Amino acid sequence: MAEPTEKIPAAKAEWLVATFITVAIFWLHLHFWQNAGGLWRDEVNTVNLAQNPSFTALAHDSFPVFLPLCFKIWSAFGHSDLWLRLLGMILGLLLPLAFWLVARATNRPPLFSLLLFGLNSLLICYGDSLRAYGPGSALIVLALAAMCSFLKSPTWPRAGALALVATLSVQTLFQNSLLFFAICLGAFAVCARRKDFPAAQKIFCAGTIAAISLLPYLPNFIALPQAAVELRRGFSLFITKLNFEMATGFPFVPFSAIWEMLAILVVGLALLSLRRNNSNEKSLAYHLPLFAGVTLAAGAGLFLGFLWFAAAGARPWYFLPPLALAAACFDFGIPLAALPRLARVSVLGLVLGTALVAVPLAHSDLRGHFTNADKIAERVSTKASMRDSVVVTPWFCGITFDRYFHADIPWTTLPPLADHATHRYDLVLKQMQDTNSLAPVLEEISATLRAGQRVWIVGLMSWPAPDATEPPVLPPPPLKDYGWSDTPYMGSWRDRTAYFLSHHCRKIETVALPDDGAPNFQENLQLFRAEGWRD
Q1: Domain extents for the chain?
Q2: pTM score, two decimals?
Q3: For a disulfide at 68, which of 53, 249, 282, 467, Cβ 3.0-4.6 Å?
Q4: Quick one: the chain helix, strand, coil %, rounded to 5?
Q5: What is the C-alpha separation between 145 and 134, in angstroms, rounded?
Q6: Is the peptide bond before 476 cis (omega within 30 degrees of 0)?
Q7: Which among 379, 365, 351 is positioned nearest to 458, based on CA atoms?
Q8: Nearest Cα to 61, choosing from 325, 156, 52, 370?
Q9: 113-149 tens-digit pLDDT
Q10: Helix axes 397-404, 41-50, angle to 10 degrees
């Protein structure tokens, strides 16, 4: 049905505002690409895995093979940080494109998705990061667009396209399998309402193909509880909500509540749509509220279940895929065209006004870097001698340091590890079980200082008070209240090393680093220099 004549200008204005926001989003991504700087440890982990994207190597990460393969191909043409980040930006820009494809399939302007997700500086930052969350978010929204297209015309070719996009999606992020299942549940609700069971069978076939593609990872899934025992710290609803608020509180903290209210509104409209059930109505527009509400509710529930099962805590960037899916559901689950003219214009005004505020705020946020480990590695390379020693703490910062430190100077981490290419939690677990794991590091520090050389400490270090007692050696895990977590051990290794240095070193000083005023999002490390031995 055509919209009333008086509403057509409002519709054009909505599409125009969406276009303006999209241009701003592209500009912000370009700005971030130019300023993000060096790669932080998780990104280095991804790049290193790309050199050997085997199923065995992937056991040291939490993503399937799609992204490492992308970086392996991309790295054939260059290895610089700026070149690698260019691919991250390209993959990040797939998301606003995906929002527009959903808009095209549903004939609803992508206002909410572009405003709440596309302009969010934190989501841009981690979406363009060399991790799977950005492309994974884009592909789950592309799967949503493919499902909308299929529901408009449920043919086998469109079912094949749906299966292809779904397979790419689950091969980017494991949790996307649950989110795609939520999309399928929304589509099944539409099929049941239409009594279109052949279409439901085609959706089932597409989902089955995507599920079968995950079978090669089955050994990794089986080994997961033991392989990731250090990370499985339990599920906390409080921590989950806190990280959700960090992810959605842009441009202002209360916007987390707006996300929640819009989600409740979409689910409520889906329930209301059941009161006017008409199985003879085949147009997709009639069924969009139901599709959006079921998909959104199922996606939220399944993702919370995933966090509970993984028991690895929550980080703001974990929420990118479900938030992208939710934002797209806001666009077609809330029928702006059905609102009175004044209400529709008011919503559009609020969207435009918020965008004008959000763009400069995001521009300011996105001038930072992920890490300063590259600058520290350069400083140590130029200032240290070949007979000095370098100690990096905590151990996972050694992944970043290893990428940027090329001097022929011995260095190690707390505790010492044989491999710094990826997150080798299996090696850390062995060191946690060894109560004498620090001995090689302390012996190296002692020998270096006795020889009149210097020890450079890279990372996060807190120095004890003069009257402090020596920190105790922790027993092997599991520990009471901490289980198999490596967190208390990292603190113990750091504190024992700091105590040793403070009692056997004549001089410890902080080395000043170049400061351009930009924040470091993930790794804001310090550099210390210790010299002189005393018994």
Answers
A1: 29-216+225-367, 371-533
A2: 0.91
A3: 53
A4: 65, 5, 30
A5: 17
A6: no
A7: 379
A8: 52
A9: 999 999 999 999 999 999 999 999 999 999 999 999 9
A10: 60
